[in-house]
Amino acid sequence: MYFQFAPAIQAAIEAGKYVQVFTSAGVPIGMVRDATTGQFVAHAIGTVAQNSPLLPLVSPLQLITSGAQMYQTHRGFQAVQAGLQSIQTSLGVLQATTAFIGVGTVAVGALAAVNLHQTMKLRKEVGQLRLEVKEGFIDLKQALKDQGAEIQELIEQVAQDVEFRNHRTILIRAYGLFTQALQRLRSAMQIQDANRRNAEIDGARGMLFQALADYDNGELLEATCSAGQLRRLECTWAIEQAIVSTYQVQNEPSAVSDRLLHLQDKISQDSLNVIDNCETEDELDFLFPEITRIHDHDLAVLESWQNHVDWMRSLPPSELKLLQNADFSNSDIVNTDTTALAVPPEELMYENLKQKSHFVSLCNQLQFMMKPELRREPESYISQQAAIAGYKTLVTSNLQKASNLAVANLYWYFKVRDAAEDEAVTA
């Protein structure tokens, strides 16, 4: 991921007048300062990940740089307010699509109606107020009216399903609590007295934790297909980020950093659990692009947010004073939502991978992406079997540089070959 700056700022960087900020470990921060005076002059107006504008599925872009404004109360609150609105929009759309996925085994081919591309478009519709979220759900019949009679029938079937109606009751209650907590948080940030403000923020955070408990309810995940599990978990990740923002507006960087680290680990582990539960090709067609987007965009946002906060924690008082007095009025996040209308590159990439691989290998590739350490055992197995077969180039040092596709495919090539040889010996 790299940061984009306003044209005038970028020109000043190239001329040597301004320099981009880096942490002591060499990690880039989306801010620039005057090379001569050291004054902070601007923050990034955009970010790029995997050669496309950063557009996460769950995480709000506004919170990437809002950490740098924790010492500027008014602007920090503004950024958090925008981030909370983005979280609310994402949560409403993600929850709404569960009314199509339903509970149990979803109908063959139906997941394409609410895949990554369709969900990004729905979020854009909600964000522009063309679709209304009521009690955490949108009118899917209206939203998906162009997708044919079969989709309309499936929506009706899920709506009548008794088990989903029980789930829906829990989700409506949790969403109501979530929205009440956000309203309380917004009001709290208008209070001038710091003690009263913090007390109200504490109360709002308690409500968010209650909502999170409902969304994280095991009943919502039990007996649900992997696609439904992912959507419910994405709702919990959104609420977790709202909780992190409550610590941020209270200027508690240690708590912010700790919660962000926990959330990144949770997203990775939750994703691995979902992949383990994937049973059909239709589910994988849904999961692969979406989990890839989460890995490349959402986790990138959270990591950048944490880098900003940890960098500030390392600053001496003199630097914090410069940060507090900085003028970032010329730095606004670029709206990249127009890319929601295009077919996501993750879907195009997945279609290409499907031509070169198979179901189990593709699942392994997703697992390797979310947790690279899982590659070590397959790499060792490939190296051992390759040595026996006389493939001299398939040594561990070369395999460590290979793509997830290559490692997963090679692993299953040798596993299938070994199984066939064992059967032949037995016969």
Please characterize this protein's 3D structure.
The structure is a single chain. This protein is mainly α and 427 residues long. Among the domains are: 52-161 and 224-348, no CATH class; 371-426. Helices cover 64% and strands 6% of the residues. The protein is built from 18 helices and six strands. The chain has a three-stranded antiparallel β-sheet with strand order 1-5-6, covered by helices on one side. The radius of gyration is 24 Å and the shape is globular. It starts with a strand and ends with a helix.
Radius of gyration: 24 Å
* Distance N to C terminus: 54 Å
Mean residue pLDDT? 88
- Counting helices, strands and paired strands, the structural category is mainly alpha
Number of helices: 18
Total count of strands = 6
The major pleated sheet works out as: 3 strands, antiparallel
Strand content: 5-15%
Unreliable residue stretches: none
Spell the H/E element sequence: EHEEEEEHHHHHHHHHHHHHHHHH
Order of strands across the main sheet: 1-5-6
Question: Which geometry do the CA atoms define?
Answer: globular
Helix content: 55-70%
Keywords: Coiled coil
